[in-house]
From TrEMBL:
It comes from the Bacteria. The middle region has homology to RecA with ATPase motifs including the RadA KNRFG motif, while the C-terminus is homologous to Lon protease. Belongs to the RecA family. RadA subfamily. The gene is radA. Residues 358-475 are annotated as: Lon-protease-like. NCBIfam families: sms (TIGR00416). A motif (RadA KNRFG motif) lies at residues 259-263. ATP binds at G102, E103, P104, G105, V106, G107, K108, S109. Residues 73-222 form the RecA family profile domain. Keywords: ATP-binding, DNA damage, DNA repair, DNA-binding, Hydrolase, Metal-binding, Nucleotide-binding, Stress response, Zinc, Zinc-finger. DNA-dependent ATPase involved in processing of recombination intermediates, plays a role in repairing DNA breaks. Stimulates the branch migration of RecA-mediated strand transfer reactions, allowing the 3' invading strand to extend heteroduplex DNA faster. Binds ssDNA in the presence of ADP but not other nucleotides, has ATPase activity that is stimulated by ssDNA and various branched DNA structures, but inhibited by SSB. Does not have RecA's homology-searching function. CDD domains: RadA_SMS_N. This is DNA repair protein RadA.
Length: 475
């Protein structure tokens, strides 16, 4: 019996044609959301040739011994804004590309317009490119903030090719782009602000910066969760990433380096936004403390570390009998999770009754305190308010609180104590070594030091739990 042979078709393997710019996940077709990292709009078509198809090319410039490279070509140049220079590592490196990101209205454009003006006032050519405002609007702000200079050039453009044409014509030593999300090019797919456009625009600016030895500062937007908008590759392309932080209801601004190829990545700069523009704050500790004619319950001062800079911060607390079945826990400027832990430790380890009390905790001056060393100050402030005990105004509390009620040592303790002494404080409560069972007192930096092992001991040493009158458990 003859049968007909059915041909079996070979299975062809389809190559991935699209790749996620965030995590590298590949797929054979375009999708709106990455199947690996769940990022939206990050999947793009792969157009690069395979490695086996790339042929070696003759280099246009021979490799140089590292000892023969001129180090003076990368000498730092100060911008004229001291706090920014501090964060950058004492100035801008020629050819460096800096990304400054921050929330809308925080003052990014105002700060960089001031930087551009200070750079140009000493005779260095500067080009400020704005894609969000007209030239007249930028000129109006420059007149209000005294940011006018003869060598400061202004261009309102949104096309990358035209921006590069302005660079060829003006030949600046500093280029400011406000912002990268508004600049686009016809050579890339998508609209300005998209993943592909941002990547191509940033790559082009990096290339021209390295070729001309021109410093470039780019303003970037952030998403609603505070991360930099655009592909993650954007942060890898640039040399320095700066985060500009601040509460729109407060004039204080903080600039923080999260990446710096030419300097420290843990430094911060302080500014204050006013009617006449942005002003440097070289000694910001006074902004986060208040002055009282007499000591009041519920206040305690601590010393936090912002980068390598010690800053004083005052925490205020208010605790009172709650009419609600579930008492309120409201905080501003402090981490809610850490504060909940501190309240639990006070209740269980220090026997301070709080389960039926509303507790409100806030910082002074709009400061954002995330340093764990502020745990002890928060505990002291809450206990002081709950037990209605006044503390001396010249005392600081520094220490991280553990779940067992112990106080853990914090880094940079010597610098914190020196800063407190410089500002006129006379006493400090700090953690002692776990091996020491007895409380000790010593004089350091002109301070009377109270080294204690636990939160309960700290409250006893400050006279909170052992205040005259009823014991703490009955107050």
């Amino acid at each position: 019996m003859g049968g007909r042979t059915v041909p079996v078709m070979a299975k062809t393997q389809t190559r991935p044609s699209h790749r996620c710019t965030e995590c590298g996940w590949t797929t054979v077709r375009w999708v709106g959301r990455c199947g690996e990292c769940q990022a939206w709009g990050s999947v793009v078509e792969v157009g690069a040739p395979r490695l086996a198809e790339v042929k070696a090319a003759t280099p246009t410039r021979r490799a140089t011994r590292i000892k023969d490279v001129d180090a003076d070509a990368a000498a730092r140049v100060r911008t004229g804004v001291g706090e920014l220079d501090r964060v950058l590592g004492d100035g801008l490196v020629p050819g460096a590309v800096v990304l400054l990101a921050g929330e809308p209205g925080v003052g990014k454009s105002t700060l960089l317009l001031e930087v551009a003006a200070q750079w140009a006032k000493v005779g260095r050519t500067t080009l400020y490119v704005t894609g969000e405002e007209s030239a007249a609007q930028v000129r109006l702000r420059a007149g209000r903030t005294d940011a006018l200079a003869d060598d400061l050039f202004l261009a309102a453009e949104t096309d990358l090719g035209t921006v590069l044409g302005h660079v060829e014509e003006v030949r600046p030593s500093l280029l400011v782009v406000d912002s990268v999300q508004t600049i686009g090019t016809a050579e890339a797919d998508g609209s300005p602000g998209g993943v592909t456009q941002i990547r191509e625009v940033t790559a082009a600016l990096v290339r021209v910066a390295k070729q001309r030895g021109m410093a470039v500062i780019i303003i970037g937007h952030v998403t609603k969760d505070g991360s930099i908008a655009g592909p993650r590759l954007l942060e890898h392309l640039v040399d320095v990433v700066l985060a500009f932080e601040g509460d729109r209801h407060s004039g204080f601004r903080l600039i923080r380096a999260t990446k710096n190829r030419f300097g420290p990545a843990d430094e911060v700069g302080c500014f204050e936004m006013g009617e006449d523009g942005i002003v440097e704050v070289s000694d910001p500790s006074g902004l986060f403390t208040s002055r009282h004619e007499e000591p009041v319950p519920g206040t305690c001062v601590t010393v936090t570390m912002e980068g390598r800079r010690p800053l004083l911060a005052e925490l205020q607390a208010l605790a009172g009998k709650s009419p609600l079945q579930v008492p309120r826990r409201t905080m501003h400027g402090v981490d809610s999770g850490r504060l909940a832990m501190v309240l639990a430790v006070l209740e269980r380890r220090a026997r301070v009754r709080l389960h039926d009390s509303d507790v409100y905790v806030s910082t002074v001056g709009g400061a954002r305190v995330v340093d764990p060393s502020a745990d002890l100050a928060a505990a002291v402030a809450v206990a002081s308010s709950a037990l209605d005990v006044r503390l001396t105004q010249r005392c600081v509390a520094i220490g991280e609180v553990g779940l067992a009620g112990e106080l853990r040592r914090v880094p940079g303790l010597e610098r914190r104590l020196a800063e407190a002494a410089r500002l006129g404080f006379t006493e400090a409560v700090i953690p002692s070594d776990a091996r020491q069972s007895e409380q000790i007192s010593m004089s350091r930096h002109g301070l009377l030091i109270h080294a204690v092992p636990t939160v309960a001991d700290a409250l006893d040493r400050l006279g909170i739990r052992r205040a005259p009158g009823r014991p703490a458990a009955d107050r």
